[in-house]
Design goal:
Blueprint (H helix, E strand, L loop, with lengths): L4 E5 L2 E19 L5 E21 L4 E5 L12 H13 L4 E7 L10 H16 L6 H11 L12 E5 L3 E4 L2 H7 L3 E6 L6 H11 L5 H12 L5 H4 L1 E2 L2 H7 L3 H12 L4 E2 L6 E4 L7 H12 L4 E6 L3
Parallel strand pairs: 2-9, 4-5
Antiparallel strand pairs: 1-2, 2-3, 3-5, 3-6, 6-7, 8-11, 8-12, 10-11
Helix pairs in contact: 1-2, 1-3, 9-10
């Protein structure tokens, strides 16, 4: 399980909630329960949110504040749902105050909400009278969101099903890519995950499960470099509706030899920066010129 605790003292805990990027994302069909079947390789990165949690024994429930993102201070926030589920499962009853400091833009395909929820579960385990076992945390995480279980798994991981079937990618590959520099860039707009998947479903532009699994297997066996496994089926509906993505991707490819990708359902994109790459300023200027000065730009690295 990922170590997220940044600071711990009596009745308080501070946790890191890393963002993720989808190095590979194949959507292989729609399920009877309304979700989609996926085959995706996820990597956690060094940029993320911070949760400051404080136990209050006198007042029950959760009080959430999110400076700069007051619209997220609702019971619908996955952090609140995680706390409620932890209380229901543990049978404990006390109050908790949470300050959520956001650095991951919402509606970006970086998994911010899911990662925040998982950190909240881990924080509750620290503050509670008793800790829930790991398998129970995985079950709660899968109830909260499809990609939540991946945030309990260290290193690179493969998620299948609707995202809840998670296994670690072989350790040697995780170690090999750990420290890989990444540039995140996002236009000043967020995308609805449900809308992106609905558009893909209307086109039935699905990959086959066999191709997806064989692609990942070939990469794990060392037959494909990381650059050749990069793929995202959700670029199909996003690029069709938002025509400004592809021209920028092509410019980056032509001028820097780097193939960017959309992360998840977007709107954030990422580029893996080659070792020794010294044109980061030019690359950022290229993105700013294309998408304007309100673009989100963040250099980070892949973490274990």
């Amino acid at each position: 399980m990922i170590e997220r605790i940044k600071h711990r003292s009596k009745n308080t805990v501070e946790l890191f909630a890393p963002a993720k990027v989808n190095l590979f994302l194949a959507v292989t069909g729609k399920r009877e329960d309304g979700y989609h079947d996926l085959c995706t390789v996820l990597a956690k990165v060094s940029v993320g949110d911070t949760l400051e949690m404080k136990r209050r024994d006198k007042n029950g429930g959760v009080k959430l504040s999110c400076p700069g993102f007051e619209d997220l201070e609702t019971s619908d926030n996955l952090v609140c749902q995680a706390v409620d589920k932890w209380f229901q499962q543990s049978g404990e009853s006390w109050g908790v105050e949470i300050i959520l400091k956001k650095k991951i833009p919402p509606m970006s395909g970086l998994g911010g909400g899911s990662s925040d929820a998982v950190s909240a579960l881990l924080g509750m385990n620290e503050l509670g009278d008793d800790s829930l076992p790991e398998d129970m945390l995985y079950n709660l995480a899968s109830e909260i969101g499809s990609d939540c279980p991946s945030f309990l798994t260290p290193g690179l991981c493969l998620a299948e099903g609707r995202g809840e079937q998670v296994r670690s990618i072989m350790k040697s590959l995780s170690q090999q890519i750990s420290g890989q520099r990444v540039l995140l860039f996002r236009p000043d707009i967020g995308f609805s995950t449900a809308d992106v998947y609905a558009t893909l479903a209307s086109k039935k532009s699905y990959s086959t499960k066999k191709w997806a699994q064989e692609s990942v297997k070939s990469w794990e066996n060392g037959n494909l470099p990381i650059e050749e496994i990069l793929h995202n089926d959700l670029e199909i509906p996003v690029f069709e509706k938002h025509r400004y993505f592809l021209p920028l991707f092509e410019q980056i490819k032509q001028q820097h030899g780097i193939q960017p990708r959309l992360s998840g359902s977007g709107s954030c994109c990422f580029a893996l920066l080659p070792s020794g790459f010294d044109q980061i300023s030019h690359l950022k200027d290229l993105i700013l010129k294309a998408w304007g000065d309100k673009v989100f730009l963040q250099t980070c690295e892949i973490i274990d």
